[in-house]
Each structure stands twice: as structure tokens, then as C-alpha cells.
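Hi everyone,

Forwarding the result from last night's run.
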Amino acid sequence: MLVSVVEGREIAEVRRRHLAALAGELQARGLSCRFAGPGESVLSVHGAGADRQVMVVATPVGAGWSYLWPGGGMADVATAPDVADQIFSLLR
């Protein structure tokens, strides 16, 4: 199934909004974040003073959106504070 250009832009905007919300939660915990990938579709998260990094994506799942991160991490975007806590623990 092909996605129209307009739908593709809308998906990219929603994805960026969800990643920005998570970035705010992560930065509040002292982690460094930057957008990466085509269309800033991935959030790169770095631990303070550490060389560890986690890449997070936001993707449509069913009727909603979820965050995905390494190690089998998956959670609804509505739980961004909990996701930030989990990622913070991974990068300690």
C-alpha cells in the first residue's frame, strides 16, 4: 500500500511530535537528545558523561502510536514519562 505525500508528511509530523515529547522527558532527567535519520525520524539519546547511546523511534501501531527502543522496549506514546524512566535506567 502506497502512502500519499500528504499522508507521509502528516505521519512524519506526528512522529516528530511524539519524539519531541519524549525528548523533553529525557532532558528533564539529565539525558542529552538529538534528532537523527531521514526527516529526523529517530531520537538519539545519550547518558550524561557516558558513551552509551539508545536510539528510539515512534511508529504507528494499530489505532495509536508506540515508542520502540533496543532490548525489546515498546510502550504507548501516552506513557512518555515511564518510557523516559526506563531509558534513563538503561543509560545509567
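The chain has a mean pLDDT of 91.

Cheers,
N.
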